[in-house]
Amino acid sequence: MRRLALALLLTALTAAAQTIPDVQSQAQATSPKPKIVIPAGTTVPLALTEPILAKSAKAGDGVYGETVFPVVLNNQMAIPPGTYVQGQIDTLTRPGWLSPHAQFQIHFTKLIFATGYTVQLTDDDEAPSPSPTSTVTATASSPEGDVIAAVATPYVVVSSASDVLLDNGTQVEMLLQVPLRLNAARVAAAVPQSNLKPLAQFKSATRCRPIPATPGTPDTVIPGTPGTPPTVIPGGPGMPDTVIPGTPGTPPTVIRGTPGTPEVPCPGPPVVASNPKLQSYRKTFQIASPVRVSGTLLAAGRYQVTWNGSVPFTQVEILENGKAVARVPARAVLLRGESPADAPGTRANADGSLSLESLRFAGEKLALYFDQSAE
Q1: 53-57, 170-174, 187-191, 225-229: segment of lowest average pLDDT
Q2: How far apart are CA 63 and CA 124, in angstroms?
Q3: In this structure, what is the dihedral angle of CA atoms 82, 176, 112, 273, given to the nearest 10 degrees?
Q4: Which domains does the chain have, with CATH numbers?
Q5: Tell me: the pLDDT tens digits for 149-173?
Q6: Regarding beta strands 136-139 and 118-120, do their DSSP bridges make them parallel or antiparallel, or are they unpaired?
Q7: Residue 132 pLDDT greater than 80, yes or no
Q8: What digits encode the pLDDT tens for the residues 315-347?
């Protein structure tokens, strides 16, 4: 009897030992993978790997580049240098004789790490469902689906005579307008394989070559012929002299030389610069119940909001009946399309109060998001 009990005990212990690893492996499989969350408002420096040409560039064209400086978050590499970036031109303003600059709006669609790990820069609602073999394992997510995930708005000082609007190696800044969630393990695997191409190796795409000046040719002078004096034959007695007129000479002949030509230089290279003319905004909005914004309580009513510039960070002044009631930090973001109506966005706090989270304005592709850290 004791032997039977001992055998049953050993069988139970063996079964338990086999069950514990299975439970542990299931827990590891279902536990969430570590994530890196890059906050909205982060800028990522890029260098273009393909030029944007003056004659052919248009909205809808692809834009290709690679990161030139690492993005580090909490002492952890989030985006290593040499990561490829793909995007698309949304709008383009070309340079003219009186306005020697170009302006772009570009939205970016994906990041491709050195290992092939691909991150779609789209909203969660628009991201395709990954197949079992897909490399799409991360997206940029936004609480509002109309916010463009990642953008660049370069202002380029460039001549209208230039054949290149943005050259190979030109640096622009990609702005993350929504948080970007990355798989930490896959990022770590890509870091050792990342290889940044030195900027000096980017070859200019311009086909312009300067035309040197020519010196021209001097005048050619053909001397004239001298004339002959008159011949005088003395007359006889009582007769006058006979004068045979001389022949006139010919003046020198001058064949004009050819003028020289001045040097024809190439236009200067395109340079990404800050827009010297920042746009000023003044909009109105209305709230139906009291809300807080960056620590300031706004009663229900109608307000005005003013700020300068477009993206990303700005100081916003909120006025009531023309009187300033708050000055708060905000983030101006670009939208996919025009807002159909004025729309203040709020969120509920734990105490039941409301905080003003965002403002959209009818007919505008620009919205404001407010800093919630001061709440």
Answers
A1: 225-229
A2: 22
A3: -40
A4: 35-201 (2.40.128.260), 280-370 (no CATH)
A5: 999 999 999 999 999 999 999 999 9
A6: parallel
A7: no
A8: 999 999 999 999 999 999 999 999 999 999 999
Q: Go through the chain and tell me how many residues it has.
A: 375
Token pair 């996919």 is at which residue?
Answer: 336
Dihedral angle over CA of 66, 311, 357, 362, nearest 10: -120
pTM: 0.76
Residue at 18: amino acid letter: Q
